Amino acid sequence: MEIYKIIDELHLNLGCRIQEFEGGAGLPTSYSDRLAEEINLLLHGCGLFDLKACWLIALKGIDAGTFLQGMVTSDVLQLEVGEIQSSLICSNKGKIIHHLEIFRSEKDEWIVICDPGEGQAVGTILDNFHIREDLELRLLNSGEMLRIDLSGPDAEKIAEKLGYFRDKIKWTFEGELVLTAKFNLGKLPRLINLVYAGVLQKFIEQILQNEKADLIGLEAFDEMRCLEGVPRSGVDYGKDNFPQEAGLGDHISFDKGCYIGQEPHARMYHRGHPNWISVWLSVPENSKATSGALLFHAGKEIGKITSLGSFSKDSVFRGIAMIRHEAAKEKTLLSLSVDEPAEIVHEPLPSIIV
Predict the structure, then answer these.
(1) Which residue of 46, 117, 203, 299 is 20 to 30 Å from 259, comparing CA positions?
(2) NCBIfam families attached here (predicted)?
(3) List of residues 6+ apart from 218 with CB closer than 8 A
(4) What is the pTM of this model?
């Protein structure tokens, strides 16, 4: 779509690298020499993250909720209108296939927000399982709505200048509908906005007129999620992992009943434990640790670092690692080799499944 090229030009003018996904939608990944500025915006102002590459699949109808309830790991029927939750589509053996965010936009409508590059696959799964249910599947990206996130302490205040009301999910900008859900990244305030494509350019331009607002990319987002202990699909966990291994306690309900993958999840939850588990790291700022580095404990390799931030806070870098369950249970320090001192602290992720 033409709007993709227009918005991407804003990023390119700042020296941004853009990764192209389905339909030609670009995702800003990193800008040249402005990461510190982006992090400062997220901590003290408002960062605008262009996520138009996320497919938005609406399910609407009297059977939409019950159909989706059987497809994903979270309890979508417990969502109030205006609420959003993280979720997963898993295989019948319980392993993760897709990470999702699910937004209940109306009493009988849920919007499935897909990760960049996964929309077509998610849509195919939903369409293949949809047989007789009274519901309509609709792709909002095809000229209807696109996703723009505002993150940071000033996000709501800046959105209010455009017409947003804090107690409403639906509002209008330039006469067109905007859907907004509060969905913090850890403790970082965040608004997920679904904006009509025809006014998206003006929406972004007006946000950027604010002194304490500017564009951010995936690199800055990754820095903040490391600080907040939030794992990312395709980086900290993948299709070989169970939700329990990835510490995705806020993605799964063990009380809602049947869904694809529910039986192995329930068995592991009630009778066992995963072999691996994601943990939150504190790494001394003078460490030589890098993302992908192996971790050791008691002379044995016990896992590896999957994400590591470069922003130092209180003289440590925060990161995420996947390590053996036995090592995760112990309050011990980890090292980068059998010969190096153990100085890396690990702790449970905020969303660990217990």
Answers:
(1) 117
(2) ygfZ_signature (TIGR03317)
(3) 27, 28, 29, 30
(4) 0.96
